[in-house]
Structures are given as C-alpha cells and as structure tokens.
Amino acid sequence: MGEKLPLLALAHGNSDPWRPTLIQLQHLTKRFGSLTAVDGLDVTIEAGRVTGFLGPNGAGKSTTMRMILGLDRPTSGRALVNGESYLSLPQPLREVGALLDAKALNGGRTGRNHLLAMAHSNSISPSRVDEVLEIVGLTDAARKRAGTYSLGMGQRLGIAGALLGDPPVLLFDEPVNGLDPDGVRWVRQLMRSLAAEGRTVFVSSHLMSEMQLTADQVVVIGRGKLLTNAPVSEVIATNSGRTITVRLPDAGGLARLKERLLPHSSRIHHLNDEELTVEGLTLAEVGDHAHELGVRLHELSGKPASLEDAYLQLTADSVEFGSAVSGGRR
Amino acid sequence: MNALHGAVRAEWTKLWTTRTVWWALITATLLMAAGAAQYAIYAKGGDLSRDLFEANGLVGPGTIAVMGASLAQFALIALATLVMTGEHSSGLIRTTLTWVPSRGRVLLAKGAVVGATILVAGILLGLLGAGLAIPLLGDRGDVQGGQITSHALAIGVYLALIGVLSIGLSAALRGPVASLVSIFVVLVVIPPILTTPDNKVLNHLAAALPGTAGDHYLRGSSDPYPPAIGLLIVAAWAVAALLAGWWVMRRKDA
Ligand SMILES: Nc1ncnc2c1ncn2[C@@H]1O[C@H](COP(=O)(O)OP(=O)(O)O)[C@@H](O)[C@H]1O
Ligand SMILES: [Mg+2]
Description:
Order of helices and strands of chain A: EEEHEEHHHEHEHEEHEHEEHEH
Number of helices of chain A: 10
Shape of chain A: elongated
Number of domains of chain A: 2
Oligomer: heterodimer
Strand content of chain B: under 5%
Radius of gyration of chain A: 24 Å
Number of strands of chain A: 13
Bound molecules: adenosine-5'-diphosphate, magnesium ion
Largest interface: A-B, 36 and 30 residues
Distance between the termini of chain B: 24 Å
CATH superfamily of the largest domain in chain A: P-loop containing nucleotide triphosphate hydrolases
Number of strands of chain B: 0
C-alpha cells in the first residue's frame, strides 16, 4: 500500500485493501454535431500511479471525463471502471471520486449540507463528511453558504466530495484551477499520496509544468485524438532534445567548433558571434570536442529537457486556433 | 431498493437545506389564507357560482378550501419546478448524477420527496382554508368534520400529484421558464379556451386535462365522470410526465 501521509489518513474503517482498479477507455468517441470532441481513445489508466491527462484547451479532456462518469453518452466505444460502466455502479461514490466542475452546486446550500446530501446518497456515514472537510481544511467555512466561497474554497469542497466515499479511483478535472501556490502544492501532495496508497488517480491539466511534477504517466491528446500514452520520463526523452548552450570568446573558435560538431549533432543554432546551441549531444561530448580542438569556452551548459517542450512539440499540429494558451471552454 | 433509499435521503436533505422550500410554503400559506377568506366572504354574501352551494343552500368549508387551493397550488408548482430546473441552471445535476447515476432513481427520489412534502403541506393548507372559512361563512357554513378532513386529504393528494407532474415536466424541459409556462398553460389557460364554444369534442378534451380532472376530483362532482376517475386522470398525467422526464434524462447528455 505504500506510505501514507499522516495528514491524509483517508481510509475509514475499510479494512480490506481494495483490489487494483483501473479505468479503461475503449475506442471512446464523442461527436457534437460535426465536431469530434473525442476521437477513438483507447487507453487503460492503471492503479497506483498518477496519470496526467494533458491537452490544449478544447482537446476533449473534460468530455472524456464526463463520459467516464456516465454524464455524456459516448457516440461510440465505451468507458469502464474496473470493467463496469459507471451507470451500473450501485454506490458509485465508493468506487470513483470525481471533481469535475467545482461550481456545479447550489450556492444557497452550505458546504457541509452539500456533502451531507452526497453522503446520504451512497449510505456513507455523516461523520465522514467532517473528516473530509478536515482533510481539505474547510472545517471553518463548512457552515457558510457555498455561494460565498472563493474559487479555491469551491475547489477544496469539490475535492472533499471526491474523497468522501474513500474510492479507489479518483478523477480530477483541472484541480488546481483557482488555487494559490500553497493550494497547488497541497493538491500535488494529495495526488501523490493517493496514488502511493494504490489508488488510480487520473488528473487533467493544460499546465504541463504541473504534470511534470505530479504525474508518473501522461496521456496526451490533441483534437480528441491520442497523441501519446507513456511514462513522463519517456515522453520527455523521446519528444524533446536536450539543448546545450556553448559560449566562446572568439568567433574563430566558434566556427571551428561548429564545423567539428556538425556531423554529430542533430541540430546546431548559431545564435550570435559568441553563442551556439546544440542538440543531440551530451555536455561531456561537447566538452571533449572543444578540448581536442583547443578552443576556449566561457560557458557550457545544458537546459534540462522539460515536459513543456515535449508537449509543445507533440501538440504543435493539434492546437485549435490560438487556444493552447487561453480561450475555449474548460 | 437500498439505492433508492439513499437517493431519497439525499433529495430530502437537498430540499430542506435551501430557502426555496420555505419561501414556497410561506407563499402557499398566504395564498390559501387570502383565497379561502375571500371565497368565504363571497359565499356568505351568496356571490358564488350556484353549483358550489349544496341543496340546502349552505356551503361546505371544505369547498372553500378547495377554491383556496386553486390559488395556493402555484406556489407549490413553483417549488417542484425550481427543485428540478435549479439543478440544470446551477449545473448541480451533473454532481447529482455522479452520486446517483440512474436517471430513473433520481427522478423517483425527487418525485417522492417533493410529492410527500406537498402532500403534507396540502393537507395542512386544506385544514387551514376550511378553518378560516368556518367563522367567515357563519350560518352559511355546512360544518361537518368528516367532510372537512376528506376535502383536506383530497387537496393534499391532488397537489402532490401536480407537484410530481411538475417534476417530470421540468426534467423533460429543463428550463424554469419553459417548465412553469407549460404547466400554467395546461392547467389554467387551455381548459377555458376549450370549453368556451361548448363543443362536445372540445369539452371531452378539456375534461381529460389534469386541472379539469383535478377539479372534478376535489369538488366530488360526477358530471362527465366520477371523482375517482378524475383522480386517476391526474395520476396518469403525473406518471406520463415522469416518464417523459426519464426518457429525456436518459437520452440527453447531462
Ligand atoms: N455540450 C457540448 N456541445 C457542443 N460542443 C461541446 C460540448 N462540450 C464540449 N464541446 C466541444 O468539444 C471540444 C472538447 O471540449 P472539452 O472536452 O471541454 O475540452 P478540454 O476539457 O480538453 O478543454 C471543444 O471544442 C468544445 O467546444
Ligand atoms: Mg476541460
């Protein structure tokens, strides 16, 4: 079961360790009129790790999550949780916890009463409501009307709801939206500890930097189509070359070094009279070549490749008009 | 059955944890009080339609309560409609359906909770209307305890069925305005339009509408059909509306 953070003592008298539970998307497709929002996704999301669900705005992440939860009907294909359709689960909150849209509640009801109704629906003990309120740090605001909550508090209430049934599978659609840096760190830690307990954690985001720190595995989609489904490290390695910066004090040395590296490197950029960027070689290799040539170096540095670079490269062709950064619906 | 029990408890909690229900009940009480008082005063002065008076020239307080209920029903229809359409306007429906994915169960639970609440409220409103009518009717009043309670019960049953009808229709139409307007049109706008020309076919049509059928049931009139048939017609409308709502909820994305 891995280690548990004491802060997040989530299990409530559930002595059986749950069987590994997974999410299966089988040729999942959703069309809205002529728009294909989700296009034949075939993905299995495994237990015990955080799977990031990446894609630019409008890529189809939320639609996919709605189909997993039985809210949208797939045009074809299906989404299964532990081999079953969500619609057939008698007490779904004990199997799947989800945060889709934190605003999807009646603002006139207090946060606690919202969770209380939720608990009743799946015969969950009301004492569990106070437990999850404590976990998300909303105890003090629990008796205030949810309409008065800030974006971040709403998000915490949504996360409390996702944890309510102590489910083995968790879905979070853009969970860090509206959270302050502390909140973001807290969510990241929560995801990690949920996965460490053996749960299946599926988190969508359009923020690549966030996923690099949180996810073990990433599923990247663009325009509804699967672009990649691989461990984070692999995505970074295969999709973004590591870039090395070399700075030299004299233009002659620079020209000679460039000539020397050309046959070995996939790409060399001549930035100015003193600077080169090199891809496809290691720092050691570049250093050795410079040493053999006897050229003086003022800088030899490598920028670590990031998921961000990999992601931009992957989705370059599938970004809807200018929507990679902003716009579109969540 | 267990799952339906959970859904009912959730809907019960939801109903009683916003202010909507209180506004609706207070409004219904005011409408019943005002309506019953006014009709009782008219009755006392003999200014009511003749068929409301009994053979001995007296008026039953229960009859006055029934007339009050025809006003009070709008507050309760609004309650039932808002309970359902509010889920769509806030997006709460997507949360509700992740708790209880079975559309039929959500609809049954809402119908049961709203129906039961309105049943009790309706009976109490009926007793209130009759109770107000007794002193105002004075010697025009035909005070028979049994009649008063049976009228109050009938009011509760009729209002509960109309509430369930509103839930079903709102589930099918989703928007509050569309739902309220449709119910209003079916209950009170269409019947007088149909019956004005006094055409046999149109009269039959009007008699099959829930408002008219409910009226027969509540007044115990046996003109085109006995009161029990009136009750059955209202119940059939409620079931049909629930089925329509269920069909739409299953077919459409939430
Ligand atoms: N109910 C809907 N009706 C029509 N189009 C929709 C609907 N929901 C989503 N879309 C469209 O489907 C595409 C995918 O949307 P979404 O799943 O929200 O993407 P993401 O969550 O990745 O930003 C977008 O082009 C969006 O406009
Ligand atoms: Mg989205």
